[in-house]
Known about the structure:
This protein has 2 domains: 10-264 and 481-503, 3-Layer(aba) Sandwich (Rossmann fold); 267-475, Glycogen Phosphorylase B (Rossmann fold). Helices cover 46% and strands 18% of the residues. The chain is built from 18 helices and 18 strands. The protein has a 10-stranded mixed β-sheet with strand order 5-6-4-1-7-8-9-12-11-10, sandwiched between helices. The radius of gyration is 23 Å and the shape is globular. The two termini are 43 Å apart. The model is unreliable at 499-504 (pLDDT under 50).
Amino acid sequence: xxxxxxxxxxxxxxxxxxxxxxxxxxxxxxxxxxxxxxxxxxxxxxxxxxxxxxxxxxxxxxxxxxxxxxxxxxxxxxxxxxxxxxxxxxxxxxxxxxxxxxxxxxxxxxxxxxxxxxxxxxxxxxxxxxxxxxxxxxxxxxxxxxxxxxxxxxxxxxxxxxxxxxxxxxxxxxxxxxxxxxxxxxxxxxxxxxxxxxxxxxxxxxxxxxxxxxxxxxxxxxxxxxxxxxxxxxxxxxxxxxxxxxxxxxxxxxxxxxxxxxxxxxxxxxxxxxxxxxxxxxxxxxxxxxxxxxxxxxxxxxxxxxxxxxxxxxxxxxxxxxxxxxxxxxxxxxxxxxxxxxxxxxxxxxxxxxxxxxxxxxxxxxxxxxxxxxxxxxxxxxxxxxxxxxxxxxxxxxxxxxxxxxxxxxxxxxxxxxxxxxxxxxxxxxxxxxxxxxxxxxxxxxxxxxxxxxxxxxxxxxxxxxxxxxxxxxxxxxxxxxxxxxxxxxxxxxxxxxxxxxxx
Length: 504
């Protein structure tokens, strides 16, 4: 008899966190805040930003407590905080502290838009966009990392603490914290890929970035390949000693554990939300307002970014209609997304490219009462996104390079009917887990078109079998298991690794 593996949930994570943390205070540090406060017509309101970071870590903090330190970018944030720049969140049911960091417009431009997203983002995504590295941006990046360090140290105030830093915006922070207080336990999760050594060496300040990251006791990536890339860079750039058997790297007589932690979603929450009456009503409204009745619907949900392969999927859908014209008027593709980083030229060029690709397909195959592709470049509410996931026969994730991609897992978690097909790029971390998806190279347009056809004609029995297996993977390897593995490795692994380096 096959028994189902126990599923981690909030209560199990809470018990584990209490046991592992003990007297240590948990501090999460990120650029992006989990709750944004806005001032609308003189009234203070809040919103939860989209994206994997908030999806993954807010449930964790709600269960574990502690403090989240982040940049305050909302127009109403300064009205919401106290004199220590703190506010209790979530607003409806407070369970942890959010401490906001204020940055000048110049600091935000140089640190975030400049070094982080014109430099590190394309570098790490192997994008066909030349990384831009400017000395003033690097200097601002250093300054802002120091600003965050001072805020974190003030929040800790000499208490035993475990600091869990997020992503590529704060690569220097762990070293700054370690140098200020060697007793702080430091961990970091890098949410995007880590490039190969040959790509990484493009960065003029690679040594400084590696040294900053090796201030961590634990450094996590999505998949093993990214860990291997990092270890090679540490060895070849810094001359650090790599103990491959234990995924351990030593630098400055300190040890850092480097391990994969495939991030996931709150399966139970997404599954339940999809079945709610509110989402059911929204399904009916969308089918009627968008004219989707009797159509086979495909879906893409993305932040509008050049790493997501949106032009490639539009071209592939056009090629699908060209190769299989019998589906004209019968299959419609809905692309939902929201523009981001509009101050960066590459993103504006991408927006123009998407508009052109859409016009090519819609003008060629559209009629007076039917469009093959419906484009929704808006920040859609969660209920609408949940409804779209329910409507879609197939969902397309065509990333050119991605750390994980939680859209794929959200689609699977949404399908309580155990139906639907996921078309997935092999260049995502999710592809190593969701092996029952239809894997297709987004650069291979004809193969991509055939993958769409496969998704359209796949019989229900096969769709059901594959979706059941994928849902089991996402349910068992949910966000709480991800957090639990990190907690154990951060707290227990740190204790083991802080032996003298000579002992290896």
